[in-house]
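ok here's the first one, seq then C-alpha cells
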Amino acid sequence: MTQQIHVMAWRRIIAAALCALLCALCLPSFAEDESADPVVCFTAVVTRKLTIRKTRDQGGKSVGTVDKDETVEIVQLEKDWAKVLKDGKTGWIVGKYFTDMQVLDETAPVPDMYKFMLLPPFLPRFSGAVHGNVSLRSDMDVNAKLLATLYDGNRVELSQITPDWIMARYRGKLGFVQTEYISDLEVIDPYLAILPDQKLYPYAAVAVNDLDIEAAVPGESGVKQHVPAGSVFPVTEPDEQGTVRIPYLRSIGQVSQNEVELLRVVPYDEAQEGELIGVFSTFFPKEAEREIDEGRRFNIELGVQLVGGTVVQPGEQFSFNKLAAPYAKSKGYELGPIINYTSDKKTGYGGGVCQVSTTLYNVVLQLPLKVVRWRPHSSYGISYAPVNFDCAVGDNNLDFIFANELPYAIRIQLDVWDGVVCARIYRDGELAMPDPTETPEPTEQPEQPEPTQQAQDAEPVSTPEPQGDSEDDSFFGEPTAAPTPTPTEEAVQG
C-alpha cells in the first residue's frame, strides 16, 4: 500500500513538471530571461526589414519582424547583433542595418562597428589632400567594404576627424579614410570649425622688459630665445604657478606671468570697435650667421611695413601679393635665402617674407575668415611653424588670399622686433589700448645685382630643427620629427 502511494506521488510530480514545461514552450515570448525589466540603451532606424530571432544565430527561431524605416529600441549591442525590445519582449536582430542611432544610456558599451553610427550626419567641415593611394571604406575598419580608391593629390570633403579615421565624401560616396593619409586641411566654413590642431589664445602678452623664453616640453631645457621689451606674442591662461605658455616654432615655450602684460583677446562675436580679436607670433634668430641673413631680416621688416595697417571690409578679399609683390629689387627687397626645389638657385629678392605671410595666416585661422588661396612650402613645412601651418608666397600666382566673412571691418597690425614677428587683428575702429611698440624702419642694405629669376625665400639656417618623435603636430603637442619634404611646384619667399 505504501509503495503504491509513493508511485502515485511521483506520477503527480512528473505530470506537473511536464505541464509547466509545455506551458513555457507555448508562451508567445522571444525572451531568453525576463526576470528583470530590460533597459533600453539606444534607439535606431533600421534600413531594411529584419527578422527578430530568439538567439544570436541567422538560423535561430523567428519570433517576430521589424519593418524597414521602423525605429527600434535597443537593449544591448554586440558585434554583429543587437538585442531589441518590441511589444514588451526581447530578441536579436542583425546589427549592421541601422541609421540615426541615438544614445539613451551613456554608460552602455558600444562595440567599434557601431561608433560611426553615433556620429552626427555628414556635414563638410574641411577639405583635405590625399597623399599616396588610399581606400575609402564603408566602416572604420581596413577590412570593411571598399567604396572607392583615392589617388595622390585628390581633394576630399571631411567631417568628423578622429586620431585613426576621418569621415570623408568623395564624388558623392560617403565613407572613412585613415587619418594618416590626409594632409593640407582647409576649413570649408570658418563659422563651423577651426582646424583640428589650431589653438585659440586668450591673451596677447607684451614683454615688460627683455626676457628669456624657457623650454616647456618634457625632455627639453634651457632658454629657447631672448626677446626684447615690447615684443608681443600669444599665450595661454596662467597656470597655478603663474606661468603662461607660448607656441614657439614647433615646440612650446613659457615665461612667468610677472614678466609680461596680458592683453585680453576678445571673442569675435563680442568685440567692440578697436578691440583685439586674434594674435599670433613667430620667431627667428637674433644674430645673423651669414651675410645673406641680413637681407632676410630686412625683407621681413619690409613685408611687415607693406602689409601692416591694412583694413579689410566685410565681404572683401585680402591678397598678400597685391600689397607685397613683386618680390624684386624694384619693390625695395634685398637678396635673401630662398626655398627652391626646382633649381640650384638658393637666393632671391624678397627671401624671408614668407615668415610674415605665415604669421598672418595663423591668426587668420583663429577667426571666421575664409581662406581662399594658400599653400604650404612642402609636406615638411618650415621650421618656424608647425607642419601644415606655414604659408608660402611668391611669384607665379603663389599667393595668400582670404575673405572677411565677419559682419564688420578688420584691421591687420604687423610688427617685428629683434627675433619676433607678430600679427594681430582688431575689429576696425579706435584702438582700445595704446600700442606698446613701434615697428623699426628696415635697415639699409648695400645694393646687389638683381638675378634673372623670381625671388624665393628660405628659413634662416640657425633656426632649430624639430625634435622628438611625436606624431602630434599641434602647438601644444610634443615637437615633431620632420617628414620627407614634398616640394611645391614654385620656388617661394619662405
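and now the second one, same deal
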Amino acid sequence: MNGASGSSPGSRRFWTRAQAVADADGMWSVALDGRGVKLPGGTPLRVRSGALADAIAQEWDAAGATVGGTFSPLDLPLTRIAGTMIERIAPNRSGAIDLLAAYADADLLSYRAGPLPDPLLAGRQAAAWGPWIDWAREHHALDLPITTGVMPLP
C-alpha cells in the first residue's frame, strides 16, 4: 500500500503521520506524510465519508506504532474493507449483488425454531431477528418469508 510493499506481512512503517484529507470533489483520502495511500492494485484510497477517512487514518497511525516498527494488513481492517469495495466490488457491482443475493435462500433470518420443543429459543429469535425483517420491509420493500421448517424458501 502506498507504492512500496506495505501490504506484505511484517512490512516496516515508513511514515510518521497519517491524516484524512478532503479532496476538492467531496471525497476523502488518507495521506501518509502527505502522500496518498494507494491500494494493492494501484488505485488511490478514496472514500465518501470524512469519519471513515479519519478512522482509516487512525488505524494507519497505530500500525507499527513508530517509524521502523512492523505491521501487517491485519492491522488495517478498515483499509482492507474500503480497498475491497474500491478495487473488487465497485468495478463489478452487479456481480457482487448477485453473489450476495444467492445467500438469501439460506439466510437464518427466515429459518426459525418452532414453539416446540424450545419456546425460549423461538422467542429469542423473534426478538433478535424481527427488527431486521421489519427493516428490510420498511426500507427495501422486501417481504422475507419465515418458516419453522427445513425446506428451502425461495
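notes on #2: The radius of gyration is 21 Å. The chain has a mean pLDDT of 89.
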